[in-house]
Structure formats: C-alpha cells, structure tokens
Amino acid sequence: MVVESNATTAESVVTPERILQLGLGFWGSKALLSAVELGVFTELAKGPATEERLARALELHPRSARDFFDALVALGVLERNENLYSNTAEADMFLDRMKPSYVGGLLEMANARLYSFWGSLTEALQTGQPQNEAKAGGNFFETLYAEPARLGQFLHAMTGLSMGAHKAIAAKFPWGRYQTFVDVGCAEGGLPVQVALMHEHISGGGFDLPPAEPFFREYVRSFGLEERLRFYSGDFFADSLPQADVLAMGHILHDWDLEEKKTLLAKAHDSLRDGGALIVFESIIDNERRENSFGLLMSLNMLIETPGGFDYTSAMCEDWLRDVGFRETYVEHLAGPDSMVVGLK
Amino acid sequence: MVVESNATTAESVVTPERILQLGLGFWGSKALLSAVELGVFTELAKGPATEERLARALELHPRSARDFFDALVALGVLERNENLYSNTAEADMFLDRMKPSYVGGLLEMANARLYSFWGSLTEALQTGQPQNEAKAGGNFFETLYAEPARLGQFLHAMTGLSMGAHKAIAAKFPWGRYQTFVDVGCAEGGLPVQVALMHEHISGGGFDLPPAEPFFREYVRSFGLEERLRFYSGDFFADSLPQADVLAMGHILHDWDLEEKKTLLAKAHDSLRDGGALIVFESIIDNERRENSFGLLMSLNMLIETPGGFDYTSAMCEDWLRDVGFRETYVEHLAGPDSMVVGLK
After folding, report:
1. Nearest-neighbour CA in chain A from B206: distance (Å)
2. Which residue blocks in chain A are alpha helix, DSSP H?
C-alpha cells in the first residue's frame, strides 16, 4: 500500500479545470436566463414551493425539473430547505417581475437576442460586422422603439441595471455647486430621480427620443418629482441638447464610433454653461486594459450590436473631453464595473 | 458638501451585480470558445506576439482584435507584457493544439455544437426532449464514430479532460490487491495508461466500439504499454464485458436512463471475478444536491444530448450497485468535480 500513498503527489499536477469551467460557463449562464424566461423567481416570490408544485406552475416536464432547480441552488440564486425551494434575497429583489427593482428585463433580452447573436462572435471578429438583427437587414433600436410594451420593459430593465451607478453618482458628485441637471439618453429617468431625491435644490430632467416620454413621465410621477423633472424630447444627433449646469451620458457613448462619440461630447460642451460639468459613465475599461473583463466584453458586445461602437478607458475619455474643450477632467469609481469620467467646462 | 459625504452610505445597498455577471457569463465563455476555434493559443505557443501580428496570423478584422485579446487577458487565459501577448502557463499546456495535453477538442465541440443547442434549454425543460442533432433526425454518436479524424480529436479531448481523474484513480485505488483491469468505454485508453504507468503489476486494457481501436492502439503504443494493454472491441449493450479483477466506467453511466444504467452495472458485476471491483467515476452530484453545480449542469447537458440520460448522486449510485449484487460500496473524491463510487463483488 506504500506505492499508493506515495503516488498521491500526482494529484498536485496542474489540471485544466479552470479553463473548462470558463469554456463551459455558458451552461450556468443559460440556466439562469431560462429560469428568468420561465418565471421561476416570480413564481417563488409568491412563497416557497416543492419541486412538483413549482414544475407544474411553470409547466416543466418532470424529467429534469429537479436538476434544473438544484442547479439554480448550486449557482446561488435559489435556496432549498427541506423540500421547499425559495428565492435568495438577491434573486427575490432583482428577479421577481412584480417588483420595481426587477432587472430581469435585461436578462430576458439577453436570452431572446444576445445569447444566439454571440454564437457568431467568431464571424464578428473576422469581419468586424454586427451579428444582430442588422445582419438580416433589421434594426434593433427601431424595432425596440416601435413597440411600446417592449420598450417600456427595456427602459425599466436599464433603470434596474444602472441603479447602483445612479445612487453612486447622486452620492459622489458635488451637486451642491450646481442647480440644473439633464440626463442625455435618460430612458425612464432613473438617474435624474436619484439625484433629485438626494438633492432637493436640483431641477431638470431627461432627454431621449419621443417614445420614451410616457415611461419617463410615469416613473418620475411615481416618486412625486414631476414638478422638478421634465422630459426633453429629441434626437441627440439631429437636435441640440438642453442647456443645463450638469449633463450626463450613461451607457450612451459606447454605442457609437469615435467620430460620433466626439460629436456627442462636443454637443454636450456647447450646451453647458461656463463652469458646468459633463458626467460620462458606463463600464469604463481600466487604463491598463487588464482588470475590467466586463468592460472589455461589453466592447465585444458593441461589436455584435453596432456598426462602430466600442467601450474605452478613462484615459481615452479624458483625452476626448479635453479635445472638445473641457478645461479639467477627473475619474471616479461608482459601483461594480461602472466608473464616471467628469469634464468641467 | 456634508450632504454628499453622508449620502455615500447609499452605496452599501444590495446591487444586482452578481446576478448580471452570471446571466451575462456566456460572454466570457464564448470569448474563450472563439479563441480556441481561432487558434489563439496555438499561435501564441510559437512565441509572444503584438496585437497586429496576432490579428494578422489569425485573420481577424482590426476593429475588435485588441478588445478580444485584452478580454482574454482579463479572463486570465492570456498575459500581456509591454505590447506582447503570450499564453498563461495553464493555457499553454491545455489549449495549444500541438501539445498532447490539449483539451481544446472538447471546447471546439462545445463551440460547434453545445453552445447553440443550449440555446434551446427552455424548450428542453418544457418537453424533456433532447435539443441536439437528434431534433433534426440526426445522431451525434453515429456521426462522430463515422468520421475517423473527428472521432480521434474527440477521444483525445476526452483523455485530456479526464487526466486529473485518471491520475487520482491510479493513485487512490488499492491496485496492489488486483492483477487485471479493463476500462469500459475507454476511448484512447487514458485511464488504463495512467494505471499501468503507476502500477507495473497491472495488465488489461480498454473496451469500446470498434472505430476507437486505432486511436487506443496509437495512444497506448506512445507510452510503450502495448504488451500490457489490449483493446477489447464491442458494444456494451449488445455484447458481454471482458472478464477482469477491476472494471471502470467513466463518464458513461450519465448518458443512459435508469434501466440502462442498471443493465450496465449488472453486466459489470457479471464479468468481475469474486472479490473484484467496479469503479464508476464522473461528475458525481453531492448527496445534498447543492454544491456540485458542474455535476447538476452536466445533468442538464444530458437532457440536451440524450433521450434519457442524467447525472446522479453517490448515494443513488451506491444503491444501484447494491441492487445489482455488489456486497460493499464506497465513495472517494478524485479531482475537481469528479468522484468515484467503488463497488466490491
């Protein structure tokens, strides 16, 4: 038996486990996306359920329902006590469709669109061409803005998704120095609402395409902020931007190519009063381009989704801001992969 | 400014970041799969390269090559020093096609097949039906075994994938008590080779379908073990298994339904001499079904790939082993998500 004992040193050999976990990581990811699509978390928000009851409510075939639910337990989004499944606190807050904090709209979109489009990543890398609806002559934004129900869901998902960044901007930016604020590409108005809630002296609103207006109005009214926050309707390439002390652009610039990015930044500079500030925020890539994997992958998502969009480092953004005339710039981390780059006019 | 400072407590709010990272986890996973498909690691195994040289060698469009390479840096599979990209030690060992330790064949298969089939996970969960080639009337195993080049690559990928488990079995099982060993569903013979290398008194070989024979012979000969290890040709449902002191079934049982699993276990019991042992190993699910997410997701992969296959806990396997006549059973962890369940006749 001595042979066997000595031989256990063979175990310390390098294994391919981490590589395989990453390469097969789409399994766990797709399991969560299907769970959101099927409404697992919305169902369990009503109360804990047995495998049988949950499978029946979701109309799942009995063959793999238990494996599916237990995989979600192992992935940390469900809990199981005795034979009852329930949501984790995190899943209950963010994945129950009935709660205002729901972010599953983004995951529903990822499940219905991005998962399959990313299947063509290799072709995207070889051709530099988008792999979404555009490949078949479609246009995601046109389709999205043409269907109010779908648009509302999408805009609401964006609000949930950016909540951490919005609260951090409301907390970290020196709002005391300014009076008026407009968020450019505001969707439902998640950022103006957070800023207005935390800073009573601020008024302004949000700028977006006309179809976003009813969703903005409804969201702002739900906080009783309709006296201080209004909707500015327009197209940020065709029209000029509203005048304000502070403007923001969140998850906007990465959709566009370099020339378009600079056009938008110059328009913002034009609309700010002297002494005003522009806040650019999204998953800004670290300057060394080796830490923020989410930001780098988001840039590949812009390859999949847009003709020329890309994500960028804070150093690149600061250069562009100075190029279009901002006198001073600085960078501050917000939440998760998001940072803001601030330009002072 | 006091208002801003106090307000930073808003940051400690729960964020949806972990859920979004999991839900969008397919981005990083697909980036690695595309990198393997494109031969990034095989190219860099020749030596470090600049972005331009690497993009040219791989015929990538310049638009997103740098984001792609830097995303692979952030994901921990490439390194970058100055402007030169190179493989991590792990990627160089397991993702260079020219090395015998290459496991990319499995990831190539996942990229070419499983990624898109998993896109139909929701339908699989609703119907209980496979979502692979079978959906269009095809048969993966028949197609695989009909093309020798593709089969060779697949079998070799299985060897690399299971190397950690094979070395652990060679080290942990009490081989001193036995003389002969046959691995059932042996592919190239990775397990018999590891056992024979570590235990000079062991002889035997591997059992698999006839098309696997040339790959087994070549692999075994590359270790100079052809005198001790032979190929047993057959179909484990149509034919009886070879007689031996020890039999093994690795990553076999999960392909089949409960009745088929028990048929295979009973056949193994029949072919063992009294006092012999059967080693069952794969990503055995923990008995609590809440830790081994890989094993649980592998079971969903069996839903995607087979009409009735599923993964199982060690307790389930021990029950089946006793049902077919084994007098004693035990469980031992091997490497990563793999464990073995041993039945003693």
Report:
1. 22
2. 2-7, 17-23, 26-38, 40-44, 51-57, 65-74, 89-94, 104-109, 115-118, 121-127, 140-146, 148-172, 190-198, 213-221, 258-271, 293-305, 314-323
CA distance A263 to A254: 13
- What is the DSSP pairing of strand A78-81 with strand A84-87? antiparallel
User: How many residues in total does chain A contain?
Assistant: 345
Catalytic member of B156, B166, B251, B254:
B254
DSSP for A191-213, written as a single string: HHHHHHHH-TT-EEEEEE-GGGH
Structure confidence at residue A146 (pLDDT): 83
Is the CB of B167 less than 8 angstroms away from the CB of A10? yes
- Residues of A annotated as catalytic are 254
Predicted confidence at residue B6, as pLDDT, reads 34
Q: pTM above 0.90? A: yes
pLDDT at B50 over 70: yes
Closest by Cα among A119, A303, A286, A301 to B60: A303
Catalytic, B254? Answer yes
Size of interface A-B (CB pairs under 8 A): 323
- Residue A9 is predicted with a pLDDT of 38
Answer yes or no: do A90 and B64 touch at CB < 8 A: no
Using DSSP's 3-state secondary structure scheme, residue A292 falls into coil
Residues of A in contact with B66 (CB under 8 A): 289
Cβ distance B29 to A23 less than 8 Å, yes or no, reads yes
Residues A135 and A129: beta-carbon distance below 8 Å: yes
Task: Tell me which chain B residues have a C-beta less than 8 angstroms from the C-beta of A311.
Answer: 67
Q: Using CA atoms, how far apart are residues B198 and B180, in angstroms rounded to an integer?
A: 14
Interface contact flag, A103 B16, Cβ < 8 Å: yes
Q: Name residue B84's beta-bridge partners.
A: B81
Instruction: Determine the distance in angstroms separating the CA of A239 from the nearest CA of chain B, rounded to an integer.
Output: 29
Residue B80 gets the label, from left (phi > 0), alpha (psi -120 to 50) or beta, of beta
Q: Identify the closest residue of chain B to A337 by CA–CA distance.
A: B17
**Separation of alpha carbons B152 and B56, rounded Å:** 30
Distance from CA of A205 to the nearest CA of B (A): 20
> Pick from B27, B106, B311: which is nearest to A297 by CB?
B27
Report CA-CA distances (Å) from B198 to A5, A11, B17, B219, B343: 12, 13, 47, 16, 22
Cβ partners under 8 Å of residue B253, min gap 6: B261, B264, B265, B280, B282, B312, B317
Closest Cβ–Cβ partner in A22, A176, A290 for B28: A22
Mean pLDDT of each 10-residue bin along chain A, 345 residues long = 34 72 97 98 98 98 98 98 96 93 89 96 97 84 81 83 92 98 96 98 97 96 97 97 98 97 98 97 97 97 96 98 98 95 98
B61·A126 Cβ contact <8 A? yes
Do the Cβ atoms of A19 and B103 come within 8 Å? yes
